[in-house]
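Q: Structure for this?
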Amino acid sequence: MPHPARQVTGAPRAAGRLTIAWIWGIPISVHVSWLLVFALVAGSLAAGYFPERQPGWGAATRWVLGALTSLAFFASVLVHELGHSRVALRHGIPIRGITLFVFGGVAQIGREPGSPGAEFRIAIAGPLTSLALAAIFGGVGTVGGSMALVSVPALWLARINLAVALFNLLPGFPLDGGRVLRAAVWAWTGSFDRANRAAAASGELLALVLI
Ligand SMILES: [Zn+2]
């Protein structure tokens, strides 16, 4: 599931979204478009993935587990954004809000990091968080191997978190990998503007490749 990286914006817009929690003083919101992708993920698990893996599961089991697994996936996306946010806060950069929407999650950071090192640490924190989640779910799925109700969703969650980590490491702005690239060019050239242009160009190139 793709998720655009952080955006630098002002206060979060209230239109079409609902704040569901506050973590570390950060408002956590759900955009109305998220409901669609939540239902799509739950439905594809309940009607496609689970019946393939466990033909013996009844409809109630598949749909309840599909909804719970979809929720756990979006909790994982939120934890990825919290990974960025935690490091940003440690660098004194405010987080205006985290929103879950159709493409995943987005943390709105209050301003650009002041140094390439800070940029790198904030950017890499998200993929590292997703990798850690993949390892945890992979461990749960392996340990719970005999209990399919646990292991089948856990192994799916391990794979999707791995995919989130790897996708976000692609070196194109605004993905996390584009920010890592920007930090590298910034450190190398000493010019934020140059790094910004390089990251933007890499993003356009990556978009072309992906299309
Ligand atoms: Zn990220």
